[in-house]
């Protein structure tokens, strides 16, 4: 093992307290989606102090929709989340007409990019992570300070510990210890701290639009330090079901029903949606990456409707989501299946046939599928195996910004980082401290190995 690599690994091993405090300091800076500015200032300072060429770049919404009309999303904010539905695709024109640009924008919400220039001739690498976190609501369910970074029994608690400040800071410290050891890397390393991954993905997409490219990328989402080479697509949707308001005394006019509650029409809509899930999951695949899991998961998460107990509901709204594996097809095909299902529900009911339920989408993610034999995954697997842990590549269980790097940027990418996806978006989110510390060393070893390989090797 080269002396400088040994020195970098030794520095990581002997600076545990420093590494832990670095993550705690980042967790203590709230960075809810829409309010990432202070945390990005923190990240820019760290990168600049480390000697990286550092840029702060606010995503350009109009340019995103022009460049990527099929996948660009509306900006989101934790206080104004998923508030602009669309029947077909979101558009910049619809955003302009909505009057919501004052809250759905990227003012003071920049991406931060730090480029560590290599000496030349080596493979380049993007290290990508999102700085934004979901809300801490419901706050009463937390038993720890959401921004306290409290450590107890080997766990650090706080919003963003697993999703995904742990991965982002592991990458930062991997580069820190390599630099302090005097390591000379032939290839460039580009560390990207991006905004608005949650419910949008526009941060990473804008960096792809701006032309940031590398020979490979690692998205540092929580995988418990396992290698993932694909991920499902996702949809957030809502169905608005109409009704006709009448009091009990006016629901019937003789034998004619005049009062129709939107709520009583929900079963037909729900059944139609569940049928989509049933059909997808009845489809068999021989893809070994999909072994042991179904290709489609539907959630019906919220229902709201009616205003008064003694009147039929004029409207009911269902909201939910869906994850689907790459074998289910691309996201716009899945959106079409949803449209077909609601059309079927409408045509099969006399009332809905003339008062149709309306399907709209709130967000859509394309899926990503790569071979587990891509050189990036193989080399990371070899590094991990040498370090005594599994180097097997598998399918990822959640959608993330990998899709933009692979599908729009044509960059071979893996998902790899500390923490558990089971901790994401929940009260008392936490990360196993040892897993975070291990990830720093894994990344040091991989960055050294990858970036010192010939670019055409």
Structural write-up:
By secondary structure, this protein is of the alpha/beta class. It folds into 2 domains: 3-231 and 368-451, Zn peptidases (Aminopeptidase), CATH 3.40.630; 233-365, 2-Layer Sandwich (Alpha-Beta Plaits), CATH 3.30.70.360. Helix content is 34%, strand content 19%. The protein has 13 helices and 17 strands. It has helices spanning 3-14, 16-27, 37-49, 61-67, 92-98, 161-180, 202-209, 266-281, 331-347, 350-354, 375-386, 402-408, 433-451, and strands at residues 53-57, 111-116, 125-130, 151-152, 155-157, 189-194, 217-219, 227-230, 233-242, 252-253, 256-257, 296-305, 315-324, 358-365, 393-395, 413-415, 430-432. Strands 1-2-6-3-7-16 form a 6-stranded mixed β-sheet, with helices on both faces. Strands 12-13-9-14 form a 4-stranded antiparallel β-sheet, with helices on one face. A 3-stranded antiparallel β-sheet has the order 4-5-17. Strand 4 and strand 5 (155-157) form a beta hairpin. Helix 1 packs across helix 6 and helix 2 (16-27) packs across helix 6.
């Amino acid at each position: 093992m080269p002396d400088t690599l040994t020195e970098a690994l030794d520095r990581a091993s002997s600076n545990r307290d420093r590494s832990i405090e670095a993550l705690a300091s980042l967790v203590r800076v709230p960075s809810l989606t829409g309010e990432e500015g202070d945390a990005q200032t923190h990240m820019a300072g760290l990168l600049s102090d480390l000697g990286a060429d550092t840029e702060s770049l606010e995503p350009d919404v109009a340019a995103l929709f022009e460049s990527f009309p099929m996948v660009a999303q509306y900006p989101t904010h934790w206080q104004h989340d998923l508030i602009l539905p669309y029947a077909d695709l979101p558009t910049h024109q619809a955003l302009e007409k909505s009057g919501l640009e004052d809250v759905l924008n990227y003012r003071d919400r920049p991406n931060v990019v730090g480029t560590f220039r290599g000496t030349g001739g080596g493979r380049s690498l993007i290290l990508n992570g999102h700085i934004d976190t979901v809300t801490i609501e419901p706050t009463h369910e937390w038993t720890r300070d959401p921004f306290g970074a409290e450590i107890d029994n080997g766990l650090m608690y706080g919003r963003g510990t697993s999703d995904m400040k742990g991965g982002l800071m592991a990458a930062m410290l991997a580069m820190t210890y390599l630099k302090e050891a005097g390591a000379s890397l032939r290839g460039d390393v580009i560390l990207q701290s991006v905004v608005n991954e949650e419910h949008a993905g526009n941060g990473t997409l804008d960096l792809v639009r701006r032309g940031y490219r590398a020979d490979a990328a690692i998205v540092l989402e929580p995988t418990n330090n396992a290698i993932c080479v694909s991920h499902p697509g996702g949809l957030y949707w809502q169905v608005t079901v109409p009704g006709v308001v009448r009091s009990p005394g006016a629901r019937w006019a003789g034998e004619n029903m005049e009062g129709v509650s939107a709520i009583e029409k929900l079963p037909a809509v729900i059944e139609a949606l569940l049928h989509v899930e049933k059909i997808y999951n009845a489809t068999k695949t021989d893809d070994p990456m999909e072994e042991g899991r179904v290709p489609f998961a539907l959630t019906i998460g919220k229902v709201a409707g009616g205003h008064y107990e003694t009147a039929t509901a004029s409207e009911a709204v269902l909201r939910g989501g869906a994850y689907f594996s790459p074998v289910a097809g691309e996201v716009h095909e899945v959106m079409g299946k949803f449209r077909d299902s609601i059309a079927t529900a409408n045509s099969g009911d006399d009332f809905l046939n003339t008062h149709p339920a309306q399907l709209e989408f709130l967000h859509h993610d394309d899926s990503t599928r790569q071979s587990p034999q891509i050189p990036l995954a193989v080399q990371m697997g070899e590094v991990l195996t040498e370090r005594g842990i599994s180097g097997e590549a598998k399918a990822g269980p959640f959608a993330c910004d990998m899709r933009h790097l692979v599908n729009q940027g044509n960059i071979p990418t893996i998902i790899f980082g500390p923490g558990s996806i089971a901790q994401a978006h929940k009260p008392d989110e936490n990360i196993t401290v040892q897993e975070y510390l291990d990830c720093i060393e894994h990344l040091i070893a991989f960055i050294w190995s990858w970036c010192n390989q010939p670019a055409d090797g």
